[in-house]
Design goal:
Shape of chain B: globular
Largest interface: A-B, 31 and 39 residues
Number of helices of chain B: 10
Distance between the termini of chain A: 13 Å
CATH architecture of the largest domain in chain B: 3-Layer(aba) Sandwich
Strand content of chain B: 15-25%
Strand content of chain A: under 5%
Oligomer: heterodimer
Shape of chain A: globular
Distance between the termini of chain B: 35 Å
Order of helices and strands of chain B: EEEHEEHEHHHHEHEHEEHH
Number of domains of chain B: 2
CATH topology of the largest domain in chain B: Rossmann fold
Largest sheet of chain B: 6 strands, mixed
Structural class of chain A: mainly alpha
CATH superfamily of the largest domain in chain B: P-loop containing nucleotide triphosphate hydrolases
Helix content of chain B: 25-40%
CATH architecture of chain A: Orthogonal Bundle
Radius of gyration of chain B: 19 Å
CATH class of the largest domain in chain B: Alpha Beta
Helix content of chain A: over 70%
Number of domains of chain A: 1
CATH topology of chain A: ABC transporter involved in vitamin B12 uptake, BtuC
Largest sheet of chain A: 2 strands, antiparallel
Strand order of the largest sheet of chain B: 6-7-8-3-9-10
Strand order of the largest sheet of chain A: 1-4
Number of strands of chain B: 10
Number of strands of chain A: 4
Chain lengths: ~350, ~270
Amino acid sequence: MLYREAGQFRTSYEADQQIFPIRQDRIAFALLMAVAVVGVPLFASDYWLTAILIPFLVFALASLGLNILTGYAGQLSLGTAAFMAVGAFAAYNFQLRVPGIPILVSFLLGGASAALVGVAFGLPSLRIKGFYLAVATLAAQFFVPWLLVKVGWFSNYSASGVITAQKIEILGFVFDSPVRRYLLVLAIVALLALAAKNLVRSRIGRAWMAVRDMDVAAEVIGIRIMRTKLIAFAVSSFYCGVAGALYAFAYLGSVEPDAFNLDLSFRILFMVIIGGVGSILGSFLGAAFITLLPILLEVLLHGGAGLLGLNLSPGTPSMMQLVVFGGLIIFFLIVEPHGLARLWQIAKEKLRLWPFPY
Amino acid sequence: MSEPASHEHNPGRRIGGTLLSVDNISLAFGGVKALTDISFDVREHEIRAIIGPNGAGKSSMLNCINGVYTPQQGRIRFDGQEFQRMDPHKAASMGIARTFQNIALFKGMSVLDNIMTGRMLKMRTNLFLQALYVGPNRREELEHRRHVEHIIDFLQIESVRKTPVGRLPYGVQKRVELGRALAAEPRLLLLDEPMAGMNIEEKQDMCRFVLDVNDEFGTTIVLIEHDMGVVMDISDRVVVLDYGKKIGDGTPGEVRANKAVIDAYLGVAH
């Protein structure tokens, strides 16, 4: 009853090829965006903005990047954080060394630098697949932070490699408050998410999925495998690079190379797996889930401990978090390999018939 | 096969000049000789069958024609151009499409997307236009969608167009794979056992599609098939391979009477 599309006939291919062909979806999405643009800035506290919503959006962008590579093009990568680091440090250096460069251009150039590095580390994918490729991308993960620490130039010779992001200013408008930074990040992420959706429903997206699903057949159709894989690495790393720049500029403010460690890569991989491999929506669901889970756990643990009269040591919540993460990953890999996005799709299909499922 | 019989009498079809010829092709994997000195030609608009017992080198032959394998010796002439070696991309852009013996569809994609992928080489817009999904890219997507819908109508798979192909039954998947190959508007269509594992009705359907493709689009077809009834009924000429060697070539009637072919299929008294 909630989700009826009866009477909505698509009479042209154009209508059929929309992102949201069903009217209820369009309304829901418009409401969601209205809440994100108007509601959140009005009601959210600074804590929610800086500690939850901004990192959620930044991680969503990074997992979008990884999802393009792993979910759509089928190339497993453990180098996400390295590409984010390239984006962050490149954007910082462009701001520092090119006088008068607009900050958005710096972000784009940060993404472009990450894309170049991504292509370089994507070259092994032409010969190796699966786990072996993941190991090859690990090289990026260890090499890039090492290089950023070793070569002082990248961090402008700061003692420990820490960079302090310049303030964000667009056409004289300074993004200094959490609300403003949130809106900037939201705009960038929304635009890039739309672009990603467009890519995956166009020719290149089909080429990626073709290479993922059956590379011999893709080749026989005339898809150039090498080029398709390298474009996937470039686009994916571009997204990660922009996410890295936002991570430094809009979220943390100052950041060191070691922040972009293997742990971060794995977190983003978990977001993709839990959210949904090969789904744009899944990237957002996964990022939301993993950003919110620690907070939820903490509330639950403290509430539970209070009820039972237990005395928790301060480390317990973070350890519980690891345990629950591990459990969830195993759960999703076994029960629903396509993650939350697939669960959402199943829910929608059920809702079409509810409450008369026959 | 009742309906498609006596194909030679169909007056609408004009068999033209030589479209493809393979000359003295030899292919070996290490010490295993998959193909030895094979030559045959395929004329425009004809249906050419390749038959032979298991392991005779039929699929290897197709793989040489569209560049998946590179033969050690021999030449391939397609449409007047001669190649020492073909590569899959070149073959595809010259108008050679194929289906596979074991279905090689893109399992995670819908029927529509699978067939759209077949039109890959006909699409032109660059990455940035695709990211924006405006102007030329939107027009291109719609224009190709229209063409793909014709194929979907032709193959009668309208009801499953949005279904991921992994969920479809085997016979329908075979049909989708044919559709994907047709989407490229090929001049030469290589079909590797399009009717393997099908029941009689599905085989009849598939025969009808193959004949219709040949008739309506004028597509030249090279077909590997084990079902002799099908081969004898729908093909114009037949090549017979055995242990990588050509042992027969001619019309179905000639091949049926060929002593070497009978021996290869039925065995010889020693």
